[in-house]
C-alpha cells in the first residue's frame, strides 16, 4: 500500500455508539482507508475491580459501546464491505469478566424463566502480560492460578441493519453485530453486506480471549487498540457475515433457536461454494457435510451465533470475494513494515 490514508479515532466517554443503525457517522471514509481505533470494553471501562458489580456501575442498556459508525463513500445496498483486521492489541494490562444475574447459558434467564434464583454477581479481574501474550486466571474460591495464552478478538463488528431498523449493540443478526466468535482475530477479513447508503460500520467489544460459545455470557473483556483496513466490493452481495482467513472460509448465522443459527451458517457456506467455487448445490451440500467444522460462537446473546468453517486446502483453486483478502494481507504487511 502506497501512502495509505490513515484515520485515528480515540473516542471520548460520550462519543460511542450503542446501536447499529440510528447513530450519525463520526467520519466519512473512502474505500482503502486504514482505521487506527481505540475501542472500550463491553462495560465501558467501569468494571475495574472485584467490587465493581455490573448492576451497580453500569446502566442498562448502555453496554457494549462501539467505535463508529463510519460512513463508507460509495457503499450502497447490494455491495459488500470488507474489513481486514491488521492488529488487535489489548490497551490495558487487565481485563474483566463476570457473571450477570439472569444472563448466560447455564442459568435462568428472562426467556428461560424458572423458580431457581439467579446466579450471584461475581467479578474476575484477569491480569494481562502483553509482552508474553498471556492472561492470568485467578480463582475466587481457591488458590488456583492458571496462565492462558491471549487470543485477542472483537466480539462485535457490523453495519447498519436493513429496513430502517436500529439494533442494540448486544444483538447479532444479518448485519453482523455482537457475534462473539473467536474467529474475528487479527489476520482475517470480515465481509458484511451493505444495507443502507454508506454502510455505517462500527466495531467494539474486545476480548483478550474467549472460549467457543461464551458460556457464562462474558469473555475476558478488555479495551483494544485495533487497526483495520476497510474496502468496498461494488455489486457483490453478502447476505450473512462471512470471514476469510489464510486457511479457512467461514460463514456465520445468528438466530434463536440454536438450530436455526446452525442452519443459516451451513446454508450460507453451501451457497458460498456454489457462487465462488463452481459446485452444484447438491454437490456443495454433500461436500460441506463431510468437511465442515461447526464451532459455536455464542449461546448467550439475544440471538445465538453459529459458525461454519471449511479448509481452503480442500477447495478448488478459485478466487473468492474478488481476491480482496490476499490483497489486504499484503497491504497489512506493508503497513506493519
UniProtKB/TrEMBL annotation:
Alphabetical list of InterPro entries matching this protein: FmdA_AmdA
PANTHER family: FORMAMIDASE C869.04-RELATED (PTHR31891:SF1)
Organism: Streptomyces lincolnensis
Signal peptide stretch: none
Single Gene Ontology MF annotation: hydrolase activity, acting on carbon-nitrogen (but not peptide) bonds, in linear amides
Protein name per Swiss-Prot or TrEMBL: Acetamidase/Formamidase
Amino acid at each position: 500500500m502506497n501512502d495509505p490514508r490513515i484515520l485515528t479515532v480515540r473516542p471520548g466517554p460520550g462519543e460511542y455508539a450503542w446501536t447499529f443503525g440510528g447513530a450519525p457517522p463520526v467520519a466519512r471514509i473512502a474505500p482503502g482507508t486504514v482505521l487506527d481505533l481505540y475501542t472500550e470494553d463491553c462495560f465501558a471501562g467501569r468494571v475495574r475491580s472485584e467490587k465493581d458489580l455490573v448492576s451497580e456501575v453500569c446502566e442498562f442498556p448502555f453496554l457494549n459501546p462501539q467505535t463508529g459508525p463510519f460512513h463508507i463513500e460509495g457503499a450502497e445496498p447490494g455491495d459488500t464491505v470488507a474489513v481486514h483486521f491488521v492488529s488487535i492489541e489489548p490497551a490495558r494490562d487487565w481485563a474483566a469478566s463476570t457473571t450477570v444475574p439472569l444472563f448466560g447459558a447455564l442459568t435462568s434467564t428472562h426467556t428461560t424463566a424458572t423458580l431457581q434464583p439467579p446466579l450471584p454477581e461475581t467479578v474476575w479481574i484477569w491480569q494481562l502480560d502483553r509482552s508474553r501474550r498471556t492472561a492470568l486466571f485467578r480463582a475466587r474460591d481457591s488458590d488456583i492460578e492458571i496462565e492462558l495464552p491471549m487470543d485477542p478478538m472483537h466480539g462485535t463488528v457490523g453495519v447498519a441493519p436493513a429496513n430502517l431498523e436500529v439494533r442494540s449493540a448486544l444483538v447479532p443478526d444479518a448485519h453482523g453485530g455482537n457475534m462473539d466468535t473467536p474467529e474475528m482475530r487479527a489476520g482475517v477479513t470480515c465481509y458484511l453486506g451493505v444495507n443502507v447508503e454508506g454502510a455505517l460500520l462500527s466495531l467494539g467489544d474486545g476480548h483478550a480471549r474467549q472460549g467457543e460459545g461464551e458460556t457464562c455470557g462474558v469473555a475476558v473483556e478488555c479495551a483494544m487498540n485495533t487497526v483495520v483496513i476497510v474496502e468496498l466490493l461494488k455489486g457483490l452481495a453478502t447476505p450473512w457475515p462471512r470471514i476469510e482467513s489464510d486457511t479457512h472460509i467461514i460463514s456465520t448465522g445468528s438466530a434463536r433457536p440454536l438450530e436455526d443459527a446452525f442452519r443459516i451458517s451451513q446454508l450460507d457456506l453451501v451457497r458460498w461454494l456454489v457462487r465462488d467455487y463452481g459446485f452444484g448445490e447438491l454437490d456443495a451440500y454433500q461436500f460441506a457435510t463431510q468437511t465442515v467444522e461447526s464451532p459455536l460462537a455464542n449461546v448467550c446473546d439475544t440471538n445465538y451465533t453459529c459458525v461454519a468453517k471449511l479448509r481452503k486446502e480442500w477447495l478448488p483453486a478459485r478466487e473468492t470475494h474478488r481476491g480482496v483478502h490476499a490483497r489486504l494481507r499484503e497491504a497489512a504487511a506493508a503497513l506493519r513494515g
